[in-house]
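Hey team,

Sharing the Acetyl-coenzyme A synthetase run so nobody has to redo it. Sequence (653 residues) first:
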Amino acid sequence: MSDRESTLSDLLHETRVFPPPAGLAAGANVTAEAFEAAGRDRLAFWERAAERLSWAGRWERVLDWQPPFAHWFPSGKLNVAYNCLDRHVEAGHGERVALRWEGEPGDSRTITYRALCDEVCQAANLLLELGARAGERVAIYLPMIPEAVVAMLACARIGAPHTVVFGGFSAEALRTRIEDCDARVVITADGGYRRGAASPLKASVDAAVRDCPGVRHVLVVRRTGQTIDWDGSRDLWWHEQVGRQSREHTPEAFESDHPLFILYTSGTTGKPKGILHTTGGYLTLVAWTHWAVFDLKPETDVYWCTADIGWVTGHSYIVYGPLANGASSMMYEGTPDTPHKGRWWELVEKNRVSIIYTAPTAIRTCMKWGDEIPEQFDLSSLRLLGSVGEPINPEAWMWYRENIGGGRCPIVDTWWQTETGGILISPLPGVHTCKPGSASRPLPGISAEIYDDAERVLPRKDAAGYLVLTEPWPGMIRTIWGDDDRYREVYWSRFPGVYFAGDGAKWDSDGDIWLLGRVDDVMNISGHRISTIEVESSLVSHPDVAEAAVVGSPDPTTGQAIVAFVIPRGSARTDAEGERFARDLRDHVASEIGPIAKPKQILVVAELPKTRSGKIMRRLLRDVASNRELGDVTTLTDSSVMDLIKEKLPTAA
Ligand code: WTA
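Structure output:
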């Protein structure tokens, strides 16, 4: 049975339902009546959502749609940082906490809206002094520290699109991103804390920018105090430079379609795609969805999104959505098991967190650690739980509900992508009945359908196929940076005229949506997108590898795990040599892409099953990879893997 078929059969047996708690429904930001009304006129709905923001100039129309390019609120003008900061201070909320930041070693900072606004103005003034200007790209490579938020908002304030690169990515990954978008300034730190130790960042920047002559300045935040190399012609300490700047900065209003950020994500080919997001539509979507899906009450809630700022979830639901809504957020630097496995729950108790937004892989890890860990903490402040990044299996959903949510908190399973900018499919906690494993309904103003292979719209009842979006939405990807053709090809050519998400999905008998995983060569490892081809090209760039094929196989904790089939150059290896070889290859992939892309299992083989036209038969390899009896590293040139592969070969082949 394929991954998708087995997911489907699990889901078909799921019948539990959890209607909205009465108290929450009565006071919900979006009630059942409001939901009904919102769905009637898509453009009018989004226009009202945009009116929740402060605009310096009104738009001419809601949407200018030149397929597949959408311009939302054309001619409208706004400043994103003003919307996230100044307007809250002006409205008298300057003393409200914007961020409660918790460092991994136990240090913490509480930052009010006024203080955050001041620091963002100072950082914006510094960027201007360094010659940055509207439209010029700035790369951000930082740990989860408040300066990451400050840096992003400072860029937004001056209209310089940022590209945040996840701190776990390698120097090489950083270099290709800096190069692709031609960033001129890089903002980084000496290092960050992970698993109780200071891990370096600046060293990767040094290696990356060596080959990027366009980079004029590297701004370095001092976080760990570790020793770093210094290039006096280029490097500047953040604390020395930001601190001396004026706190006054008048925000300039930019066109609604002005670029806000580029975020790289894996596609089905080796080269990561720079997903471009712009201003007005994006902020409208993330602000509305953050308010509606999490039922945010900015005066009383303490909201915590556990994502890293290097992923889109961090952009939309740590930075832009929550701050546009004037929310009080908690932000945590480190890993969930440092210094102990109850750290997250200790932080919830300490900060009285009321809304938590995390990923199924984290939930499954906590499940594995045991119920007795969260039991030791007072989690009664929680009132709403969220999930994102991959399909959540019903067992993890129920564990989350019972052990974290005390059996009383609704769970919003939110489906979206880097390309969608914000949540498009999710239950609204005061409206919809939640089902373990279902992302429920498209939000108002979102036109989602499921197509079959032949481009037919499936009826919204008991049907499975490909998830598509048939109308543009605000916050939609604007294009792939520098490559409009690839943008058309990747998203708009599978089914002409509609957006192809790359996910399988089904409608159940009540008309609720269940996501079934990717239908392309993109793997989802702990909620992170990694393409099989990206890992393959990294493996074949190793001098001892002749050929490689990579597949995702089901994994109880990370959702999927990377399994690589590798044909070595030269002679056959003994088992011990094979172990060493596999270790080398893993390190090689880690240094080329980053540790998240390390194959969990490496199978050394003499040949790969191919079709007559020479295409690797991945489906077969996936079946082999799902065979749980294989060891962590299986070295063979002659025996079991190939036997397994052969057994699966159709007799005709
Ligand atoms: C998957 C993360 C099922 C999906 C925000 C999508 C999900 C990819 C869900 C995007 C969910 C995300 N249920 N699958 N609730 N949320 N996905 O770009 O395959 O990192 O296409 O964005 O994650 O990953 P990305």
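Residues 265, 311-313, 388-391, 413-418, 439, 501-503, 515, 518, 524, 529 surround WTA (CB under 6 Å).

Ping me if you want the raw files.
A.
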